[in-house]
Write a structure and sequence with these properties.
Elements: E1 17-19, E2 22-25, H1 28-39, H2 44-58, E3 68-75, E4 78-84, H3 116-127, H4 137-145, E5 147-148, H5 151-164, H6 170-174, E6 186-187, H7 190-202, H8 205-209, H9 211-223, H10 229-233, E7 238-240, E8 243-247, E9 250-254, H11 261-271, H12 276-279, H13 284-304, H14 316-319, H15 322-329, E10 351-356, E11 362-368, E12 378-379, E13 384-385, E14 416-420, E15 423-430, H16 435-450, H17 454-459, E16 463-465, E17 470-474, H18 481-487, E18 491-495, E19 505-511, E20 514-518, E21 526-529
Parallel strand pairs: 17-18
Antiparallel strand pairs: 1-20, 2-10, 2-21, 3-4, 3-11, 4-7, 5-6, 8-9, 9-14, 10-11, 12-13, 14-15, 15-19, 16-17, 19-20
Length: about 525
């Protein structure tokens, strides 16, 4: 049989799903796993968890069992936040990394405690309806019986293998004799199925205080890593009060630091001083002011954000102070790009999914191994790929984000939630490193200033700004925008529309009679429901 050509040369357009119950995820099989829980009488919590657990199997290029997670849940008239990111091993002091100029990007030197499994259990215990073990059934089936690898994931897998092939345990776990599975090939991982069964049966105890914890420590010791079973046993998922910022009648909610969500809130507070609607949708002015606001927000994020208020002299309240953001807004010149530094406030790789049910519960959920397969470390015989969140610690003496035992690093993954007048509007997220905060800003401004529907918001051309002078635009921006931005001093790169540099969005909007769910064509996203 002649093999299929898995390129997609033609532009396609997705339509949103309209339904009373909805799941939107970055991989169709995982979305269906979530939907199956709703069919069994579960709620949006059960649906989100089954979807997330399945994603560790069917989209291993972006997340795994050994990652972190954050979630925002609208339930019975209140928004709840859960932070289940893990801290540094107890051996990690600044002196531990004396030989390094910066934190390692991969290997055991980048592995912090994986918090995700504890988050699954905490979320299920508080809000779920179905038995915890049932949520694992689709993922275990995919791992045991196999699933056909989708084209997008096959491309990402093949691209990542050269980076990770020499990391401990990776070759044996995630390659076939050194190569990635191709699109359409059947991938089975029985060892991963057994691990998920242990987690399901023990309620996560095996991962933090049992057999799996012992295997993680044994492999760390074998390879010279610092992670110990005592570090795993000390982890607890933390329920937190979300932080927020109003913009044009809507309110964006984020998990407080150690996440980067505060950067989205700062940027919105700055943009609230500009008439985006008057600038026009997709105008050069719209992109310019968005880029400049994100530069200002990221400058403060890098300088001040850290694990807990005690870690930094500047709190979230200081950074979100209306007077401070008004002063930051004055720094934006509509005719000229800037390269701003942090202000002086007054002191005192990832998968995202959304789920919603007919009873009104809505879930904004994100989990990640960070860069693709994360650290590249895979515990033999378990399928546990460990994340590389430790890379985001600082080694600069006195920096709020400097590495320390038990401390959580500054985190990129953030779920977003929008309300209006105290009522839920939308669960949403945009995957992709620092793209996440600026992706949230772009979704909110498109909704609040232009009234775009969720699928249009997801499909719209995005901008991305990173530290330094270069900004990146998607190729389907209006033709005059790149040149107009260059004339203002921006160093502009135009990237392909399907580039994963711009992340991938999933959104569920609460409508009068149900939900409008959108998924992103930049990944294998799919919205399902009934």
């Amino acid at each position: 049989m002649q093999p299929l050509d898995w390129s997609f040369p033609y532009t396609s357009q997705k339509m949103p799903l309209l339904a009373a119950n909805a799941v939107s995820a970055s991989q169709p099989l995982a979305a269906q796993a979530g939907l199956s829980m709703l069919y069994q009488g579960g709620n949006a919590i059960d649906s989100a968890l089954a979807c997330a657990i399945a994603l560790t199997v069917v989209e291993p290029v972006m997340n795994g069992i050994g990652g972190d997670m954050f979630v925002l849940v609208w339930h019975e008239g209140k928004l709840h936040g859960l932070n289940s990111s893990g801290g540094a091993p107890s051996l990690w002091t600044p002196q531990y990394f004396d030989r390094h100029e910066k934190m390692p990007e991969m290997g055991w030197g980048s592995v912090t405690v994986p918090g995700q499994v504890a988050g699954w259990k905490a979320l299920s215990d508080r809000f779920g309806k179905l038995p915890f073990a049932r949520l694992f059934e689709p993922a275990i089936r995919y791992a045991q019986e196999g699933f056909m690898v989708s084209p997008q994931i096959a491309r990402q897998w093949a691209n990542q293998v050269p980076r990770y092939i020499d990391q401990p345990g990776f070759r044996d776990a995630f390659t076939w004799e050194g190569r990635a599975p191709r699109a359409g090939e059947l991938w089975r991982f029985p060892a991963q199925a057994r691990t998920l069964e242990q987690i399901a049966e023990s309620g996560g105890e095996s991962f933090y205080r049992g057999d799996l914890a012992e295997k993680i420590e044994a492999f760390a010791r074998q390879c010279g890593g610092a992670l110990r079973a005592t570090d795993l046993a000390a982890h607890r998922a933390e329920w937190v009060e979300p932080i927020e910022q109003s913009f044009r009648g809507y309110t964006l909610h984020e998990i407080p630091p150690n996440g980067q969500g505060i950067a989205a809130l700062m940027a919105l507070g700055i943009l609230d001083h500009f008439d985006l609607a008057g600038m026009g949708v997709d105008s050069a002015d719209y992109y310019h002011v968005g880029l400049e606001a994100m530069k200002l927000a990221f400058a403060d994020l890098s300088k001040y954000a850290a694990d807990a208020p005690a870690m930094s002299p500047v709190s979230a309240a200081h950074l979100l102070d209306a007077a401070y953001l008004a002063e930051r807004a004055k720094l934006i010149d509509m005719k000229r790009a800037a390269n701003p530094g942090p202000g002086m406030p007054k002191t005192g790789g990832t998968v995202y999914l959304a789920s919603a049910d007919a009873a009104g519960t809505m879930v904004s959920y994100i989990q990640s191994n960070y860069h693709g397969f994360g650290s590249g470390v895979v515990v033999p015989g378990t399928g546990i790929s460990l994340h590389n969140r430790g890379e985001d610690f600082s080694l600069v003496p006195g920096h709020p984000n400097i590495v320390a035992p038990g401390k959580r690093p500054l985190h990129t993954i953030i779920p977003g939630f929008i309300t209006r007048d105290g009522s839920p509007v939308m669960a949403m997220g945009v995957m992709g490193g620092s793209m996440q905060a600026q992706g949230h800003v772009q979704m909110v401004t498109r909704l609040a200033s232009f009234g775009q529907n969720p699928q249009a918001m997801s499909d719209a051309p995005r901008f991305r700004v990173e530290p330094g002078p270069t900004v990146t635009l998607e190729s389907h921006v209006p033709g005059d925008v790149p040149d107009s931005l260059r004339a203002r001093g921006h160093k502009v790169t135009v990237a392909q529309r399907q580039s994963l540099d711009f992340g991938s969005a999933q959104l569920i909007y609460k409508a009068e009679h149900g939900y409008v769910a959108a998924s992103d064509s930049r990944r294998d996203g799919q919205a399902v429901g009934f």
